[in-house]
Design brief:
With 107 residues, this protein is mainly alpha-helical. It contains 4 helices and no strands. It has one domain: DksA, coiled-coil domain (Four Helix Bundle (Hemerythrin (Met), subunit A), Up-down Bundle). The structure holds zinc ion. Zinc ion binds next to helix 4.
Length: 107
């Protein structure tokens, strides 16, 4: 399988995710420095912090999966299910390029 293009895509995506997660974390920690005196405002800010940290967590999870996929690619294992060792269908890889499991194993 030609993975050059997929690797480039994944590396782009990884950079994007790392930026997004760093940004979300920066915003969240910035807000910790001084909560508004207004109680209602505080509630909104806390809620935003939760959203931001959820975004950061999600981005980190996805980034982790992409890093693992790049490692598997290095080993020539890209597109092979880590569960059963069968080939992952091209349609699934097109939908989720960083998946490491076939549809059956992912369920
Ligand atoms: Zn499988």
């Amino acid at each position: 399988m030609d993975t050059v293009q997929i690797r480039a895509q994944l590396e782009d995506k990884l950079k994007e995710l790392e930026q997004r997660s760093a940004q979300a974390e920066r915003h969240a920690s910035h807000r910790d420095e001084g909560l508004s005196a207004d109680f209602a405002e505080q509630a909104v800010e806390r809620e935003n912090d939760e959203v931001l940290s959820a975004i950061a967590d999600e981005s980190e999870q996805e980034a982790l999966q992409i890093r693992q996929t790049l490692t598997r690619m290095d080993k020539g294992l890209y597109g092979i299910c880590s569960g059963c060792g069968e080939a992952i269908t091209p349609a699934r890889l097109a939908a989720i390029p960083y998946t490491s499991q076939c549809v059956d194993c992912a369920e």
